[in-house]
Amino acid sequence: MDIKTIIIFMLLCVILYLLKKIMHIKKEIDRIQEVLVDIKNGDYNRRILIKKNDTTEKICHDINEITLQSQNKLIEQKQSEQAYKSLMTSLSHDVKTPLASMVGYLEAVQEGLVTEDEKDEYIKVSLSKAHYLKDFVEKLFDWVKLDSGEWKFSFADKDLNELTRNVVSDWIPILEEKHISYEIEIPEWECNIMIDENAYFRSLNNIINNIIVHSNCDKVHLKLEELGTKVTLTILDNGNGISEKDLPYIFDRMYQADSSRLTKGSGLGLSIAKELLRVNNAKISVSSVPNIKTVFTVEFAM
User: Fold this and answer.
1) What integer is the mean pLDDT of 267-292?
2) Residues 33, 60: Cα–Cα separation, whole Å
3) Which of 8, 105, 170, 281 is 20–30 Å from 130 (CA)?
C-alpha cells in the first residue's frame, strides 16, 4: 500500500469520525431543542438529561440551572400574589371594623340615643378607635416605605445608650399612667455604633408599644449592656405572654396572636421593628413563658 492510499484512508477515517460526532451533536441539540420548546410553553419541570463527558454537558447543565431559577421565581411570584391578596383582605377588615364601630358610637351620641352619663363613655371609645386607626395608618405607611425601598436611611456614629434613654423617657409617663412599674438599666458611659437614629427610634417604640398594649403586664424591666463584641438590649414583662404556637410567627407581617394577648393589633408593629433593626445590623428574638414572663432580646454587632 503506497503512501497516497494510506493518506486517503486516514482522511476517510477522520471524515467518518467527524460525521459520527456531528450526528451525535445534532441528536443532542434536537433533544435540547425539544426540552426548550416545552419550557417556553410553561413546563418548568422539564430537565435535560446530562451525560457525563458529553460535548453538550456544560450547556445542558446551564439550561437546567436557568430553568430551575425561573421555576423558583415563578413560585415566589405566585406566593407573593397570594400574600398580597391576603394582605388586602386583612387590611380591609382591620380598617373597616374599628371605623364602623367609631361611626356607630358617634352617630348614637349625635342623635341623642344615649344618656348624658353614657355620652362621655361613647366619646372615649370613639377616641380609642380613632387612635387605633391613626397608629394603624402610620405603621402601614412604614410598611409600604420599607417594602418599596422608599425609606431613606442615614447612618451616623451615635451613642446607643443615649438614644435608648431618649426613647424610654418618653414612655415613662405612660407606664406610670397605666400603673406599670419599671426598672431601667442603661450604662452612663458612651456606647457608640453606626446606626440610623430614626429607624432605631421607630423599632424600639414599636416593641415597647406592643408590650404596653398587648401584654397586660404590671412590670417592665429594660436592660442595655455590652457583652464582648455585642451590645444586648433586653425588655422583660410579666404579662400574659405569647403562646408556644404563636412564637415562631410573632415577627411575621400581619400576624396577630391569639386571645392570650390582651388586644388585637395590626400585626405590623413587630415585623416593622424586626426589619428596621436588621437594617441597623441588629437581630431581634423573643422568648415567653405564658403568665410568667416574655423577653424581647435585641443584639447589635459592634
Assistant:
1) 91
2) 11
3) 170
- Same structural domain, 136 and 187: no
Single-letter residue type at 171: W
Do residues 190 and 206 share a domain? yes
Instruction: Mean pLDDT check: name the lowest of 17-21, 171-175, 286-290.
Output: 17-21
Write out pLDDT tens, residues 200-216. 999 999 999 999 988 89
Q: Comparing C-alpha atoms, which of 197, 216, 212, 204 is closest to residue 131?
A: 212
The position carrying cell 410598611 is: 143
Three-state SS letters, the chain: CCHHHHHHHHHHHHHHHHHHHHHHHHHHHHHHHHHHHHHHCCCCCCCCCCCCCCCCHHHHHHHHHHHHHHHHHHHHHHHHHHHHHHHHHHHHHHHHHHHHHHHHHHHHHHCCCCCHHHHHHHHHHHHHHHHHHHHHHHHHHHHHHHHHCCCCCCEEEEEHHHHHHHHHHHHHHHHHHCCCEEEEECCCCCCEEEEEHHHHHHHHHHHHHHHHHHCCCCEEEEEEEEECCEEEEEEEECCCCCCCCCHHHCCCCCCCCCCCCCCCCCCCHHHHHHHHHHHCCEEEEEEEECCCEEEEEEEEEC
**One domain for residues 184 and 254:** yes
Range of the domain at 139: 85-148
pTM of structure: 0.63
Residue 80 lies in a domain: no
Parallel, antiparallel, or unpaired: how do β-strands 282-289 and 230-237 relate?
unpaired
Distance (Å, rounded) from C-alpha 205 to C-alpha 168?
8
